Amino acid sequence: MWGHRKQWQFLRKSVQLEKTSHAYLFSGKKLLGKKEIAQEFARLLNCQSEDFDEKPCRKCSSCREMEKSCHPDFLLIENTDKIEETEINLIRHLGNWLSLKPGLGKFKVAIIDQFQTFSLAAQSALLKTLEEPRGQTVLILISDYPELLVLTIISRLQEIKFNPLSSQEIVDLLLAAGADESLTDRISHLSSGKPLKARRLLNPDDLKKEEERIKRFAGMLNQDLVFWFHEIEVLTKESDALPENLEVWLDFIRLLFLVKMGVVKKGNLDQNQQKLFGKAESIPASKLKSLLFSLDKTNYLLSRSNVNPRLAIENSILELF
């Protein structure tokens, strides 16, 4: 349930023709399913089925070990500590691991999720591995912000770009997942083309929370600066919910901007969404665009550094005034 048929078919064809790259970069915004497709690619590379059309079969010993998250030839690295010394040790361990011969599958496959969060020193440490590919190995780097990677690393990767899905693609995925047809258009617009978000919104509680956050944000758009600063103060005290709230803001502004530009027809939105958008119709598209870029940068900085959340968000909101 991830979509991205074009990218998936390209990857399948490269395996079928035995023309896989030794290193890939899966790039695109969060919640698009990049990591999930990377894991599916790993299953495909090592699936033992004799019929290629059935791969990944999920029945062979390799596929079963992947499902149990204990495949000896698969490694997933997720940077949780964000400590430079730990990151460098992870990269060194990766190099040693890739130097070993595959045990169960045909390839040693490693995925590094959110590689842009690794320090420059850790990124540089990976260069040796990229410059000296060993045997049957495939390395996949995943990044929401590829522009923050070292250029010498990007030049050694085959980049696969992931973009938000169309509304119809999201609707098709939701219907395939057994969603109520009456909810598909509603969820599709709220998901902003992100299949992982669309799947999450199939949960009635998550859908309700999402719409409550949007309603709260839409009510703020035409308020004065004093009101904004008070709301931001309240928001930043809810530290656990801050990332989700910012994602809601970004998705709502993005959809509002697309409506303004005529890319999304207002008539295609449901009644509640049209009512919410009506509150923000007076905001010029140029200001929405500036706010979108500024908030996106702030959202990244908050996940990457120790920047003051309140000051960073206040600085972004000034784009409206």
From TrEMBL:
Listed GO biological process terms: DNA-templated DNA replication
Top-level taxon of origin: Bacteria
Source organism per UniProt: Candidatus Wildermuthbacteria bacterium GWA2_46_15
Protein name: DNA polymerase III subunit delta
Family matches, as InterPro entries: DNA_Rep/Repair_Clamp_Loader (IPR050238), P-loop_NTPase (IPR027417)
